[in-house]
Amino acid sequence: MAPATPQKTSSPKVNVIRVNDLTEAVEGAFSTTVAALKQLVGIPGIAWPSFDPRELERSAEAVAELVRAAGIDDVRIIRSNREDGTPGGPAVIGRRPSREGKPTILLYAHHDVQPPGDSALWYSAPFAAHERDGRLYGRGAADDKAGVLAHLAAYSAAAKVIGDEFGLGVTFFFEGEEEAGSPTFRRFLDENRELLRADVIVVADSSNWKVGVPALTTSLRGVIDGTFEVRVLEHAVHSGMYGGPILDAPTLLARLIATLHDDAGNVAIANLVQRDEIALDLSEEDYRADASVLDGVRLAGQGSLASRLWTKPALSIIGIDVPAVDLASNTLIPAARAKFSMRLAPGQDPEAAMEAVREHLESHASFGARVTFHPGEKGCSFSTDTSSPAARIALWALGESWGVTPVEMGIGGSIPFISDLIDAYPDVQILVTGVEDPDSRAHSANESLDIKDFQHAIVAEALMLAGLNAQGLEDHAEPA
Ligand SMILES: [Zn+2]
After folding, report:
1. CA 55 / ligand 1 centre spacing (Å)
2. Architecture in CATH of 222-274+313-379
3. CA–CA separation, 342 vs 221, rounded Å?
């Protein structure tokens, strides 16, 4: 996989950014940064209702302490209520106001983590950080406690090196319920709009291209889900007495599901946004290996792999309700239900996509079976303008830190709250960065972080802060 796409990565004021001093400052503090990350990994702060909420509070307290230790005085732990009145996850906010008319940058990461899953699949305990072969293993080691520490360490280095000249406003926003679907995010933004107002937002919750090659995430797919039921009988009947002239609901559900893709494996639903991504392509071999595709299984869909992953819709069936095999009896099943999840191309309106799915399902049931459709969650896609001043500084900083040209990449996944940020602050420049790499296995067993790349990510962000502090957000078309 060769990183392509040449970048405009030169910085207008590179001579005043003190790259070496910032790099050394990050290096000098790096063992402390890693120790703090290990400490955070030891706290199983999970925002799902079935887990002990005290651990999530403990996680927020520990993060707040780290923000104070970075020299921020205004630190608070706040939360908004869910619709049912129960409190949402604790967010940690730390602020340092801007001086001399400099812009404000909001640094986002989340301190809550995914549940550990089956602990038998982990080589080392999920909540005890473990270093092996240059990687740090543990739940949250990458997603996204490393994001929390990257922001804090980058800020500390920048504040130390730039000293009195550092007038950039900095707001840390460490969410405490991202892995639970950010249920109170929108309300939280509404209730804290002035507190969180910024000119640039860095969302450190994505991935780099691969170990040793940085990336700026320039597009994310949206996502929708929903359920549909196929019904043919009012109640179950004996398959010997009645079977033959009636196709059972699981069979008809399977036939309906089969219409969702064409024979080449493209999503067959009409009127969905999609485009071919030609700037950059991925290696099919790497993709197959990363996804553990079995030998002989052919990949689905047409167009480049990057298009199929980033700029075209993708639909999966993620659950089916039919009788379990062990409970099966000789009856014609009257109804069966499935849940779909669909990733949307950047630019696709989720509402329109939901209607397109409904329309398809309602018009494609065979044998006149009744289809009932229930729309579920919706999340918007994202794409960024890489010619914006903030994006150009970020691309320069990534290249400078890693010493290789950064990749502008799409991500097939979704970060739905980004559209909430854009709604709240329409003029804001959003940068999606991250500390992960394709082998980080966020959400899975043996989640890990490449420690060297973690350091590169911190240096890059320190350079980004220094760059923004030095040149603000004016558009310097011509690099000096
Ligand atoms: Zn995350």
Report:
1. 18
2. 2-Layer Sandwich (3.30)
3. 10
